[in-house]
Amino acid sequence: MAAAKNGASSRVDDLKGLPPEELAQRLETSLDKGLSGDEARKRLERYGPNEVLEKEASVWARLLKRFWGPIPWMIEVAALLSALVGKWEDFAIITVLLLVNAGVDFWQESKAISALKVLQQKLARKARVLRDGRWVQIEVRELVPGDVIRLRIGDLVPADAVLADEAYLQVDQSALTGESLPVNKKTGDPLYSGSVIKQGEARAIVVATGPHTYFGRTVALVAKAEREARSHFQQAVVQIGDALIVMTVALVLIILIAGLFRQENLLELLRFALVLTVASIPVALPAVLTVTMAVGALELARRQTIVRRLAAIEELAGVDVLAADKTGTLTQNRMTIERIRPHPPFEAADVIFYALLASREENHDPIEEPIFAEAKRLSLDRRLSACEVTDFVPFDPIHKRTEATAVCNGRRIWVAKGAPQVILGLCEETLGDEEAVNRTLDELAQNGFRVLGVALREEGEKTRFVGLIPLYDPPRPDSAQVIAEARRLGLDVKMITGDHVAIARYIARVLGIGDRILDVRELREAGMKEWQVLAEVLVRDLYAAFKPGASEAEVRRFVRRVVEDLSAIFEKERLGTVHRHESEIVRLVEESDGFAQVFPEDKHFIVEKLQKAGHIVAMTGDGVNDAPALKKADCGIAVEGATDAARAAADLVLLAPGLGVIVRAVELARVIFERMKSYAIYRVTETVRVVLLMWAAITFFNFYPVTPLMIIILALLNDLPILAIAYDNAKVARTPVRWNMHEVLTVAGWLGLAGVLSSFLLFYLTVEVWRLPHDLIQTIFFLKLVVAGHGTIYNTRTYDRWFWSRPYPSAVLFGATFSTRVLGTFIGVYGWFFGHVMTPAGWGWGLGIWAYSLAWFVFNDAVKVSVYRYLERRGLVQPS
């Protein structure tokens, strides 16, 4: 076969235009049976999986990168200076710090990458393929050249292929060509991997897979990381980091200048300044927060929610408006047939039979599935076996119907099913009162039914109306309860549906959403009317100004001509309409409980207006045309069963139906956010505490509270266990949460000052009251910083509540922080850490510092609660 001869490298363009039978012959496949399972396995081994893996940095490259950059350079220079002055213990421990920092950062990145790979595996795309004469679903990566696949609306073309049916397809190739307009495809035309089927349904033969396609793509982790850098999350990290770097560098420079004035040893002074800077700048902040989100993403995956973009977790935590599709999210997305309305002389079985001919079971279309189920119940198999479908025209959004031509008992018939008004329009003979049919349709619509019309044309006769099939998608049993729960969480749930206003209001009432349902058309029509009035006034005034003597009739003719021309331009260019005042449109959208008669392009409009009102919006979607709205939303959510295009555009992909999955995801996202915020406040607090203490003690008292080596050990003990914050228990916030830099810096600043106050009280007691030796005082300060340091995390994790409030710390967090405090205590008590590093303080001072730190821990908690109470009274933060 051609693909085999060329090592599967045949370009799809080389085979385009060939008749389907000849193409199948060249690829050694069958249009009727496809490949056999054995042959497919052989080709998979020969050509490899259908995936294009982007080149990833090697493990060694990622590891060595940790030793290159401003922070590693500072640590390396500090180690070099320690060696130059003969401080070999310092050199060894600084080197250990460098290795630990690199190792922890490397481990964090590897963990995040592994988490994302697991999530991507859960999102493996499926393809409908003909194998051994049966249509089956397989993973896209298992496709091979010669496979016969079926494509329909919303599918991403899984590999380079050639259209094999005499059918019409409209394909979006913008991802490849940049051309925004869809391209029409006919038999023999090429279909490129990554394109999106916009209209139509057809079979195609796979020509090339994996790296041999014209353009194969998978989600690249590196590109994902770059997108993260543009998120709210990274902006917050940069703001925190910048503030701490500026403060640290400024105070360290003051310390350096003060030391130079005192004529201290330049190398020692420089080494101390470098070590203090390295220990104070929160180099681990981005990595810790990223790992926290990666761990959270795995938790979300266990709850049937797949995260495609890590920063979407932070955005989901801040969502205050959820624009939810009615179908599948609020309802069961399981259509059931109510009482069939046959049109005389037809019977209910006739309606189902003719609808069955215009359906395909292998498509698993939710509208058609109840028809097959009803046909089975009515035992129509024998009647169906007497018919052979010779032509089938799939549904498309423009014609709004499915058609089929069949030969039944030797007689040719044509059948159609689809939107009732469209079907009625095709009928030349209704054999009854058409008004009665319309009254039935109105009655069914008002009661929330979706209706299919069925038409029949027998050879040589007129098209006749067969009857109506009412379909009903009942609300999910838990929807009303979940909506009430969402509102308790500060989530405003707005229903989005393409159904008629009457159906939307009925469902909204049943679910307790509210009855303020806005017909999207009202906005357009009202806007057009107001625009026309405004245009008429302006044109009339301008014409009168330039031609004062014109008659009233002449003015009217001119105004009418200009307005008609402008309207034509708006319609032709699809510019929409100039609405009434923007603020009024935003208000209408914001105050509505739901939206009816919504087309996919309207979703983008709704999201935009809600965002202009200052809301963080989550939008659900499932179709290819939902992709722009999913991209526009702060958090795009592809619901269960969404098309490939919708999943690719979304931030989150749901693996289970219903609103409950989304609400659970919001709750968990808020927990993850609380973990990140508590760590951010903790890290800023510790930087303020250490840097201010060192600056004040050295500048004003010419006293070094700790040695450079102690700072290095403190940094080691602080960085290792804090990763456990990703597994902490946290309270679910009652309202949406967002990064509030004023809150983070204010609370951390006051806690840092409280820590400095406790340190200076200890400084006064040890120097002025007890007059202890300098080296012992430094050990005591080391003990104080190591014991009190991780205590701060227990202050920051409960925000405006006392530290003993629920939820209690996780066993992982408590074990990690307690063990490092105990280790630090042993180091201070015995003065040993891979060698003699400080003056032993003994157990008396060790236990005394624990008691002192616990007392100040309670005081710090009182400071924290007081600061939060003040911020809440000022309206600067929301109560938790």
Automatic annotation (TrEMBL):
Localization, UniProt: Membrane
Q: Which domain of life is it from?
A: Bacteria
Q: Which UniProt keywords apply?
A: ATP-binding, Magnesium, Membrane, Metal-binding, Nucleotide-binding, Phosphoprotein, Translocase, Transmembrane, Transmembrane helix
Transmembrane stretches, start-end: 236-261, 273-300, 747-765, 777-796, 808-833, 845-863
Q: Name one Pfam family in it.
A: E1-E2_ATPase
Q: A biological process (GO) annotation for this entry?
A: proton export across plasma membrane
Segments forming domain Cation-transporting P-type ATPase N-terminal: 14-87
Q: Which CDD domains match?
A: P-type_ATPase_H
Cellular component annotations (GO), alphabetically ordered? membrane
> Hey, which family's this protein in?
Belongs to the cation transport ATPase (P-type) (TC 3.A.3) family. Type IIIA subfamily.
Name assigned to this protein? Plasma-membrane proton-efflux P-type ATPase
Annotated organism of origin: Oceanithermus profundus
Ranked from the top, the taxonomy reads: Bacteria, Thermotogati, Deinococcota, Deinococci, Thermales
